[in-house]
Write a structure and sequence with these properties.
Keywords: Oxidoreductase. This is 3-oxoacyl-[acyl-carrier-protein] reductase. Belongs to the short-chain dehydrogenases/reductases (SDR) family. One of its GO terms (molecular function) is acetoacetyl-CoA reductase activity. This protein is an alpha/beta fold. The chain has a single domain, classed as Rossmann fold, CATH 3.40.50.720. Helices cover about 50% and strands about 15% of the residues. Helix 2 links the parallel strand 2 and strand 3. The longest helix has 29 residues. It binds acetoacetyl-coenzyme A. Acetoacetyl-coenzyme A (CAA) binds next to helix 5, helix 7 and helix 8.
Length: about 250
């Protein structure tokens, strides 16, 4: 497989770490962003000990200015970005009648506006070079909705609307744009859901268990090789059968 330059947002998180490792294992050069210096350096050391050399760049994807700066920094360190994985995301779960403007805006800015902020600085280069992969990490809850997640589900559904529009605009330029929609994965984000609520959710998953971050990284990697160039605008569910919409 041709070695590419990949930028994975939120790469230090649960799913992000697995994506970063998988892309590196496939021979790509991988960068990610961070906000918290100390956490990021610890993460980098842990990965270094496992043999991974991942480029870290500071910047908050919810800020258009910081996103542009961090993309340019990755370009300076590694070269033009061929693969962008929009993975960074947060939750601020609460029922809508209690939701504050801050809880709404933080989730929309970090999970959805980030997709604009990050993709805008890389798309022209991909079009010029006639090759690119843009992959959104959405969620099962963008497909089916979720009690307590009006903000998150709106952002995650919006990500796929972005995917299918960008896919049309860029198909002639060798760029594919796809979404992966993970179900409930055993990350800190899901473990933060109160235990009794979480147990009820797991009981609704046909496989009878939470997914692993590696199972999402596998789905992401599927979209990358040249053999996948006919697949664009897809939404790949990886959710243990919890939601089977088509
Ligand atoms: N359907 C119907 N009723 C529900 C419900 C559901 N799914 N969930 C909760 N309720 C009911 C409760 O039974 C309770 O009813 P009573 O008051 O009659 O007993 C009531 O709602 C509680 O409502 P509150 O507004 O008081 O809720 P709360 O403040 O206790 O917390 C919550 C509500 C924050 C939504 C909490 O239930 C929660 O955290 N739920 C999990 C949300 C979730 O799945 N988040 C996913 C995080 S991981 C992720 O996002 C990754 C990914 O992509 C999958």
């Amino acid at each position: 497989m041709t070695a590419r330059i990949a930028l994975v947002t939120g790469g230090t998180g649960g799913i992000g770490t697995a994506i970063v490792k998988r892309l590196a294992n496939l021979g790509h050069r991988v960068a990610t962003n961070y906000r918290n210096e100390e956490k990021a350096r610890d993460w980098q050391q842990r990965l270094q000990a496992e043999g991974y050399d991942i480029t870290l760049v500071k910047g908050d994807v919810s800020s258009p200015e910081e996103a542009e700066v961090l993309v340019r920094e990755v370009e300076r360190k590694l070269g033009p970005v061929d693969i962008l994985v929009n993975n960074a995301g947060i939750t601020r779960d609460t029922t809508f009648h209690k939701m504050t403007p801050q809880q709404w805006n933080e989730v929309i800015n970090t999970n959805l506006n980030s997709v604009y902020n990050m993709t805008r600085p890389v798309i022209e280069g991909m079009r010029e070079r006639k090759w690119g992969r843009v992959i959104q990490i959405s969620s099962i809850n963008g497909q089916k909705g979720q009690y307590g997640q009006a903000n998150y589900a709106a952002a995650k559904a919006g990500m796929h609307g972005f995917t299918i529009s960008l896919a049309q605009e860029n198909a002639r330029f060798g760029i594919t744009v796809n979404t992966v929609s993970p179900g409930y994965i055993g990350t800190d984000m899901v473990m933060a859901v109160p235990e009794e609520v979480r147990n009820k959710i797991v009981a609704q998953i046909p496989t009878g268990r939470l997914g692993s971050p590696e199972e999402i990284a596998y789905a992401v990697a599927f979209f990358i090789p040249d053999e996948a160039s006919w697949i664009t605008g897809a939404n790949l569910s990886a959710n243990g059968g919890q939601y089977m919409g088509w």
